[in-house]
């Protein structure tokens, strides 16, 4: 499993900002799609544990376990563990999971980084109890007419495509989740407005994680990347406008049959 955005402290900080930005839309998705309190929830690709705590707080599950491939992320997350919240270092493309069969598997912005996502989803289905749920949130689209933000997104999309990944995997999810063992319970696109400063902060932190990757160095001049990085830094300090960039989040709830 290759993660383009790395596992550095800066990458962790970006994930913390991202968690804050999307906490409201994710909480609403969870509450609307799950009627009963689950016994065991597994957060796939939990990073530093922000989504794991969101799942625990929103669902009041008896046990929530976060899984991630990064030892540094897991070490950080374990500092926030509680009797009903735990973390383990594990490649989420490999089954079985150390947690055992779950009532709910959850992932956000994870499949966009994985190759052969359909086969991975099939594997995940085997880690659900009968009647258990798989909740997925991925990017459907990002609308912006802000030149700098659009330029950044074009570079990220190209970088992920080079790795056989897809920044905008949302439109493909329904086809990717066609399975004899999974049935669609809820399928929608949720629009999420993000302030220009928030988007710039996520992008500025992110570019520091991948600007030294070979693909970037081979296809973009250092002057261009450094200029984008600096312009993003400046943009983090602008007024909190919320009319310049908007995400469309594909929210897909699947149930094991």
Automatic annotation (TrEMBL):
Domain Methyltransferase: 41-132
Keyword Membrane in record: no
Keywords: Methyltransferase, Transferase
InterPro entries in UniProt: Methyltransf_25, SAM-dependent_MTases_sf
Annotated GO MF terms: methyltransferase activity
One Pfam family cited in the UniProt record for this chain: Methyltransf_25
Single GO BP term: methylation
Protein name: Methyltransferase type 11
Biological classification of the source: Bacteria, Bacillati, Chloroflexota, Ktedonobacteria, Ktedonobacterales
């Amino acid at each position: 499993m290759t993660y383009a955005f790395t596992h550095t402290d800066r990458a962790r900080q970006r994930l913390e900002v991202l968690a804050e930005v999307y906490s409201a839309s994710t909480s609403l998705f969870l509450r609307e799609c799950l009627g009963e309190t689950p016994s065991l929830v597994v957060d796939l690709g939990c990073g530093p544990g922000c989504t794991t705590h969101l799942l625990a707080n929103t669902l009041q599950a008896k046990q929530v376990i976060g899984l991630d491939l990064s030892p540094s992320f897991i070490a950080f997350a374990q500092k926030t563990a509680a009797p009903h919240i735990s973390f383990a270092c594990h490649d989420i493309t490999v089954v079985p999971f150390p947690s055992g069969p779950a009532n709910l598997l959850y992932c956000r912005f994870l499949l966009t980084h994985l190759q052969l996502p359909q086969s991975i989803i099939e594997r995940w289905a085997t880690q659900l109890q009968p009647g258990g749920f798989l909740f997925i949130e991925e990017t459907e689209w990002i609308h912006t007419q802000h030149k700098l933000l659009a330029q950044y997104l074009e570079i990220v999309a190209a970088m992920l495509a080079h790795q056989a990944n897809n920044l905008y995997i949302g439109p493909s999810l329904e086809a990717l989740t066609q399975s004899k063992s999974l049935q669609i319970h809820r399928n929608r696109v949720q629009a999420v407005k993000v302030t220009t400063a928030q988007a710039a902060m996520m992008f500025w932190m992110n570019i520091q994680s991948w600007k030294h990757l070979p693909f970037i160095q081979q296809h973009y001049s250092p002057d261009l990347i450094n200029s984008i990085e600096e312009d993003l830094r400046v943009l983090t300090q602008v007024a909190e406008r919320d009319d310049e960039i908007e995400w469309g989040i594909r929210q897909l709830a699947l149930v094991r049959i």
